[in-house]
Amino acid sequence: MIAQLIEAARRRADGGADALWRRGERTTVAFEWGRLKSAGASEEAGANLRVRHHGRVGVAGTTATAAPPDELVGRALASAALGEELDLVFPALGPLPPLTTCFDRAANASLDDLIGIGRSLLAGLEREGCRVNVAVERETTATRVANSGGGSGEYRSTACGISADVWRIAGDDVLVVSDALEGADVPSDEALAALVASINARLDHALRVVEPPEGALPVVFTPAGLSALMLPVTQALSGKAVLQGISPLGAKVGQAVFDARLSLTDDPLRVGRTASRPVDDECVPSRTMRLVERGVVQGFIYDLETAARARAESTGHGTRGIFGKPVPAYTNIVVSDAGAQHAASLQLGGGLLGEIRDGLLVDELIGVGQGNVIGGAFSHPVALAYRIDRGEVTGRVKDAAVAGNAYDLWKRVTAFGTDARWTGSRWAPSVLFEGVSVVRR
Amino acid sequence: MIDRLTAALARSRADYTEIRVERTWSTAVSFRGRRLESATASEDQGGFVRALHAGGGWGVASFTSLDRLDAMVERAGELSRTVPVDPPIRLGAVPPHQADALLDLDGDVRGVPIAEKKRLLEACNGAMLGVSDRIVDTLAVYRDEVSEYWYVNSQGTVLHELRPDVTLSGTAVARRDGTIEKGLESIGMRRGWNSVQDKAPGFRAVAERAVELLDAPMVKGGTYPVILDPELAGVFIHEAFGHLSEADFVYENPQAREMMTLGRRFGKPVLNVGDNGAAPGLRGTLPFDDEGTATQDTTLIKDGILVGRLHSRETAAAMDERPTGNARAISFRHAPIVRMTNTYIAGGRGSFEDLIGDVKLGVYACGAFGGQTMLENFSFTAAYGRMIRDGRVAELVKDVVLAGNLFQTLDRIDHIAGDFRWNQMGGGCGKAGQFPLPVTEGAPHVRIEEALVGGDVGP
Asked: Which of A29, A133, B29, B357 is found 20 to 30 A from A10 (Cα to Cα)?
């Protein structure tokens, strides 16, 4: 369909066109409060078309893929008639990097396979007084991109997602500990066992509630807890924020802005990750991009439009759905300790707790993403956090909040942990910062 | 279409089958600063089937190609058979409805050229940009849709509806040196083109406030009597209490059921809370939910006591209560789950002045930049605040973040004014991957005798 679409668009739009076509099928099983409850299947196909006509750019999308291509072209042209002028060039075909995105086990996993995974998680997580929800899904997707400049690409990909949450309600105290695995292949038994162990370890430590500490304290953010500190940085490294003039890092390329041990990479070529792809959604071949190297800002992510406006090159971060226009977005963010040589450990706190006399381990915060994120200042109540007393976790802390400024904290990292792992599409270890403001309420 | 759906139903071998088909036309226009970011028209269509065999779990199937209708009905039935459930799923009784309901389109947006929509938005965006050269950036978004909706189930319900939705929102960013402040405006209605005319003054007002906030001090963190304006009070009741009243949270969880036992005191006798999916003209309003149950006004807290909860047919049967018409899905891609519609704190007595008259030092928290609840804990960021000093509204303050424990905070609501209003905003509610679901919140001014206000927490 995509070739006809580009052909139909080229006949009517004098500045060319590009399009994305995607078809996916997914199966899911869900265990609700410990019981297998539902099984689902879905099939979806759609196309997104962008045209340039009289120097103006317009976009249209549809899931009515049986309709004649001219309908979609007509809507894209109507969108372009209102659009701003943009010197958008559709890139010619470039060599695509080799990348495995399709895994047979995920493609062929049966409903019984998914149910089996769910049951094994339930068996590992069930305990007195707790209720468990588990969801398991797998999907296959076929993606095609093409443009009137001769660019094109296509790939099949698979994904498998598993999530579990354990609830314990005692009086008015609600405790939820959850974790998830997401990958392009069905996870190994070891990975499933690690998921169970991760939830159980955090649950064991959470059963006892202790008084929160207070003051400017050492705080360890777990790989999941790091979200509040990563979000301002990733927002500020988007070319879109730089163009808007709201990025605090906009004029800092080449400058050492962060601790010299911090490096940040966006890597669309990681094998086994669901965000990995050989080509972006605008026909730009994927490549690994260094965002921060040993504390020094290297550059920003761009899609074709933001690159054209910034007089830069697309970095291959164009991302589009069936509806709406492409936007620059990250694939797999890798946070690394630039000097790391240590062996991995999955211990809670990643080996950072030993030196802490009195502090906090933060696993989840409430309200991340609210307010003026890109400015770096944050203040969040804890959802799941633990007190650390003389190197040991002594229990769960409620009714406390942590506050600070992400850019300040990343300037003075005390230590990186040895427990790096994927949380969604971010790879990061636990990180220890000194002097984080902790308030009680 | 109805004939096609009933024919497909007739071929289903499951004990219960329902089919939903939607065809949605939408347009979206957005400005970033002075630049039009995009103006697009989209068409989305697809279907959803849910089937139940006696002793089986839910089998669900969704699809974008209507040619697949019969195959997906068959597939949903097979899926139900592969997941045995014991005790079996039962559905609360609902009378079959046959309705052809056209909600008030109030100026069908499909008949308005997209260039007109751009002009309307440009005026609102221009109102923000025109306030001051301190406004360094804006984002303005217009979005509308009309969804044609068909629903049939094997118990005789046949529905056909046209569902409109229109939203208009704006963010104004004010900046001076390193200080950045925001103002947000948001308007949303289950109506059409006529309902979003002449809205520029509201956009101007939020931009003016963003500029004013540049000079405002951060609120000093601490415990205060806090008055919530109707907007923030509405967001509070939705986020902090509403989600707990959704029965899918409690129906198979004995500890949760105990926490949410009907008859439990949740607040002082001034507190009355409900959810009304039948209130006219609001975004959460529809004649029927996505299981074909008629919507209604459900009282959740009466005189401070928990008296009700929100149900789907399944949760109602499991708890021996009645379905309340709260099973909703954001689109054909999803199964209906228990959701709120238009959630409210009912109006009390007296005026705003009566609430602040005896407050020596307090915070008046207004508007919402966001809110999140982790069950009994919540955090809300107000758009701005004003100090209350000696019974009067005093200086503007910023970074007003309210955080606390739901049960304690509800119990500390000691005064509710009579100035109830619905907050007809855009955006929507998210749950279990289904976002944004159109909902509305409503409340009068509400006083919390003591609440923790974060802000300038210092190192």
From this structure: B29
A65 chain-B contacts, CB cut-off 8 A:
64-65
Residue with the two structure tokens 């009466």 = B302
Q: Copy the structure tokens of residue A79.
A: 């969108």
Q: Given an 8 Å threshold on Cβ–Cβ distance, is A173 in contact with B376? A: yes
| A158 beta partners | A140
- Token match 């965000």: residue? A275
Q: A244, B33: Cβ pair inside 8 Å? A: yes
Which phi and psi (to 5°) does residue B120 adopt? -60, -45
Where does the pLDDT of residue A345 fall: very low under 50, low under 70, confident under 90, or very high at 90 and above? Answer: low
> Which of A41, A66, A172 comes nearest B259 by C-beta?
A172
Beta bridge partners, B366, equal: B384
**Do A379 and B401 lie within an 8 Å CB cutoff?**
yes
If you write DSSP's letter for every residue of B215-231 in order, what string do you get? TPPBPBPEEEEEEEPHH
Looking at beta carbons, which residues of chain B come within 8 Å of A216?
A: 459
* Structure tokens given for A201: 């370890």
3-state secondary structure of B340: coil
Please report the sign of the dihedral spanned by the C-alpha atoms of residue B356, residue B362, residue B367, residue B371: negative
E-strand ranges in A148-252 read 152-170, 173-183, 209-210, 215-221
pLDDT at site A344: 63
Judge: B221–A439 Cβ closer than 8 Å, yes or no: yes
Calpha distance B381→B388 (Å, rounded) = 18
pLDDT digits (tens, 9 = 90+) for A281-330: 999 999 999 999 999 999 999 999 999 999 999 999 999 999 989 999 99
- Tell me how long chain B is: 459
Subunit contact A379:B457, Cβ cutoff 8 A: yes
For residues B423-427, average pLDDT: 88
Task: List, for residues B291-347, the tens digit of each pLDDT value.
Answer: 999 999 999 999 999 999 999 999 999 999 999 999 999 999 999 999 999 999 999
Contacts of B44 in chain A (CB under 8 A): 62-63, 322-323
Task: Answer whether A291's CB lies under 8 Å from A264's CB.
Answer: yes
**Whether A110 contacts chain B with CB within 8 A:** no
Could you tell me which chain B residue has the CA closest to the CA of A168? B255
Residue matched to tokens 């605008």? A282
**pLDDT 10s digits, B50-107:** 999 999 999 999 999 999 999 999 999 999 999 999 889 999 999 999 999 887 888 9
Contact (CB, 8 A) for A149 and A88:
no
**B57/A401 Cβ within 8 A:** no
CA distance A394 to chain B (A): 21
Residue of chain B with shortest Cα separation from A434: B459
Rounded CA separation A238/A256 (Å): 18
Q: Do residues B208 and B129 make contact, with C-beta atoms less than 8 angstroms apart?
A: no
Which strands sit side by side in the sheet containing B421-423, from one edge to the other?
B305-306, B297-302, B273-276, B342-345, B440-443, B421-423
CB-nearest to A366 from B44, B58, B379 is B379
Quote the CA–CA distance of A304 and A282 in Å, as a whole number: 7
DSSP three-state, residue B96: coil
Q: Which residues 399-418 in chain A show a CB within 8 A of chain B?
A: 399, 401, 403
Q: Are B87 and B176 in contact (CB under 8 A)?
A: no
CB–CB of A64 and B375 under 8 A? no
State how far the Cα of A236 lies from the Cα of A248, in Å rounded to an integer.
6
For residue A241, give the nearest of B210, B177, B33, B214 by alpha carbon.
Answer: B33
Q: Between chains, do A45 and B32 touch, taking CB under 8 Å as contact? A: no
Q: Which residue blocks in A60-206 are alpha helix, DSSP H?
A: 69-82, 104-108, 111-125, 189-206
pLDDT digits (tens, 9 = 90+) for A113-160: 999 999 999 999 999 999 999 999 999 999 999 999 999 999 999 999
CA distance A81 to B38: 11
